[in-house]
Specification:
With 402 residues, the protein is an alpha+beta fold. It contains 13 helices and 17 strands. It has 3 domains: 13-105, Rossmann fold, CATH 3.40.50.20; 134-193, 2-Layer Sandwich (Dna Ligase, domain 1), CATH 3.30.1490; 197-396, ATP-grasp fold, B domain (D-amino Acid Aminotransferase, Chain A, domain 1, 2-Layer Sandwich). A hairpin with a 5-residue loop joins strand 9 (197-207) and strand 10 (213-215). The longest helix is centred in the middle third of the chain and has 17 residues, at 240-256. The protein binds adenosine-5'-triphosphate and magnesium ion.
């Protein structure tokens, strides 16, 4: 489906009538930041999320509190909105099919269905021009037995519903692999060779209905326990040749999928001179997210157009302009761990540091590993951004990362 241009503000004769309303499936923090970007441009918003209290539901004009597949909920959503997007990749594909038949829906059910399934996703990513990690599909005991030795040590990942390192088990022997697959209840999985990572990066692109595409420069990401901890975004954060290769691969993936919306592609950078790097290449494509991404949150504060602005523009068929980053940025994720024992983090001390932008998502309950917010440090130079981020981490009790 192609998308009409849905201008913000009141429509109808003499500018009277209903404001254009944009819808989003899912009420998490990504939905919240989409809603805020849409509202800043004059759109009304509607969120569909079963949770009575959700980060996006709290700030949206309308919140439909039904299950994602609830017919009435979907009908209400369609009545309200002119176009629909999604904020999480596990939104049931049939819901997006229903929505896509009636309204411009971006990304499409097809693109989301590929991203939801690591087996389909890997096959697709392999077309990007950048290799994927060597892997085997494990859906049967025979496939488990046939896994080549070269994939061990490896990481067994469930094909569906994994995030933040959940649904993943590291295995160094065949015995461990077997018990890991049993522990994952023998669901379809992929086993990936464990690679020596020198770094991880991601690229965010936005592609319009007309195929026009813009991108953010690759950001460097540090994960801890499978969860994004830190993103560094500034010129020179990685070798330019690799950065160009990553951007091109992300654009290829988006074009290949005929993708509309914001897409994030995650990459591994392999240790230079390692046998794996010699055999596979220095850059490996890991996975994609069919939506804005945690590693792109810095774009809210460090770029002239954010990833959420681009989500609004792609959905509404508005022009895309190549974003310009005006400040070096380091983003720190604020996990529920910071609230242990009912303590309140020392925001007063953190906000006393220069260039700190605090974002809290309005979640009422903190738990270990739960993403409660993030902060982005912007500065004139990478060195300043890094040292202020380290100071903020020290105030908050986050272990140093540089
Ligand atoms: P996300 O929250 O990004 O969706 P996820 O749970 O889908 O995460 P992955 O991105 O596949 O998981 O892996 C999480 C992290 O585990 C990676 O960012 C990387 O640090 C590490 N990892 C995953 N696969 C490999 C691999 N083949 N070799 C080495 N490290 C890996
Ligand atoms: Mg990942």
């Amino acid at each position: 489906m192609t998308g009409p241009m849905l201008l913000p503000g009141a429509t109808g004769l003499n500018g009277s009538g209903q404001p254009t309303t944009l819808g989003v499936m899912g009420g998490g923090q990504l939905g919240r930041m989409f809603v805020q970007a849409a509202q800043a441009m004059g759109y009304f918003t509607v969120v569909l999320d079963p949770d009575v209290i959700s980060p996006a539901g709290l700030v949206s004009h309308y919140h439909i509190k039904t299950d994602y597949l609830d017919e009435q909920g979907l009908t209400q959503l369609l009545q309200r909105c002119a176009a629909v997007t999604t904020e999480f990749e596990n939104v049931p594909a049939p819901a997006l099919v229903t929505l896509g038949a009636a309204r411009p829906t971006a990304p499409s059910a097809d693109a989301v269905a590929i991203a939801q399934d690591r087996i389909k996703e890997k096959a697709h990513l392999a077309l990007s021009g950048v290799p994927v990690a060597p892997y085997a599909v494990i859906e049967t005991a025979a496939q488990l037995a046939a896994v080549p030795d070269s994939l061990l040590p490896g990481i067994l990942k469930t094909a569906r519903l994994g995030y933040d390192g959940k649904g993943q088990v590291r295995c160094s022997s065949r015995a461990e692999l077997k018990s890991a697959w049993d522990a994952l209840k023998n669901v379809p999985c992929v086993l990936e060779q464990m690679l020596p990572l020198a770094a991880e990066c991601s690229v965010i692109v936005a592609r319009g209905w007309d195929g026009s595409v813009v991108h953010f420069a690759p950001q460097l990401n540090v994960h801890r326990e499978g969860i994004l901890a830190v993103t560094e975004a500034y010129a020179g954060n990685m070798a330019p040749a690799l950065a160009n290769q990553a951007v091109q691969a992300a654009k290829n993936i988006a074009a290949e999928l005929n993708y509309v919306g914001v897409l994030c592609v995650e990459f591994f950078v392999l240790a230079e001179g390692s046998p794996e790097s010699e055999a596979i290449g220095a850059l490996v494509v890991n996975e994609m997210a069919p939506r804005p991404h945690n590693s792109g949150h810095y774009t809210l504060d460090a770029c002239d157009v954010s990833q959420f602005d681009l989500q609004v523009r792609t959905l509404a068929g508005l022009p895309l302009t190549q974003p310009r980053q005006h400040s070096a940025a380091v983003m720190l994720n604020l996990l529920g761990d910071l609230w242990v024992d009912g303590a309140t983090p020392r925001w007063d001390q953190v906000l006393a540091l220069p260039g700190v932008h605090l974002h809290l998502y309005g979640k009422l309950k903190a738990s270990k590993g739960r993403k409660m917010g993030h902060l982005t440090v912007t500065a004139a130079t990478p060195e300043q951004a890094r040292s202020t981020a380290l100071a903020a981490a020290s105030v908050l009790g986050i272990a140093p990362f540089f």
